[in-house]
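Suppose you are handed a protein chain with no further information: no name, no annotation, nothing but its sequence. What can you learn? This example shows the usual starting point.
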Amino acid sequence: MGLDARVGCACLGAALAACGGAGGPVAVPVAARADTDEPQAGPDAELLGHDLEATVLEIYSHISLGNFAAYRDSLASEEPVVLFGVRPDDVLVGRQPAGAARDRRLFGAMSPTLLSKNLEIHLSPDGSVGWTFDEMSYRVTYRGRTASIPIRNTSLFVRDFDRWVLVMEHQSYPTAIEDLRAAAAAGRGAQPRRFASRQTVEPARELVRLVGLLHNAEPRDLGRRVVPDATTLVLLPDAARELRGREAAVGPSLATIFGPNTTVGLRDYRVGEAKNQTIAWMAANLILRTAVNDQQVDIGLRGTYVFRRTAGEWELVQMHISAPVGERELGRRVFGTP
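A reasonable first move is to predict its three-dimensional structure. Written in structure tokens, the prediction is:
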């Protein structure tokens, strides 16, 4: 089956090593996989995986050290990018957006440090596209103590000559489904910032339709267009629903987990396709309509998706759904501040 290569451990470098404690930085296991059913020929998956790992950790270092111009230089120049942060207003789209050179960090005044906990890397068969997942340890000092905030981070990169460049990034803080329902009913639900849709690539209509079907599927119907592979990952808004492999393929849809009479629609979306025409991606604002105590409520969510085309059909290999969280609300959850 697919070629699996275990990539060795890497550190963030001397600038971040001091943040890892007296014993130095913790080794980060990284799985580099070329998703193909045929023997790999041409690109060296292990070397490309090492290179992508180094690129991700270098981005963490740039952000930790406040090198935001360097972070912006890591973005794709030929592809429009989409960058979703944790906060409702933290969204950037377009070709190397100027806002990427600003300090967009959560709790930026606390000099946060980003460390990798368990970085996962997956590669397209030809080595031209890579996508990642990491539950970062986002460390800040509060009242003399270090708090480690778990931030889920998924990204998609494309190969630009001899380097990887960032095309899509999605960071989130998990929120329980019941908390989202209660906040919406109380009128406190955060709505993600809108952005202009883009659907100029050929498979856009098919992928938009597929996402709608996935989110509104009846129980156990999700597997029709989700790859039932061990590397497939579905992240839903709450921390308890990190679905992998077959569980990702047959698990509950987004509408199902929010309860009866729930519907999910796409509000804004941007679709991209790799030059090899076998990998595609999407970033979207979602509107989820449900009922809480017989009251109709709308919940704003964000989603990012990675697809691969096999035998002429697009299938999902990674999905990340989140509810944006304001910095003040996040501080209340993490630090107990009012």
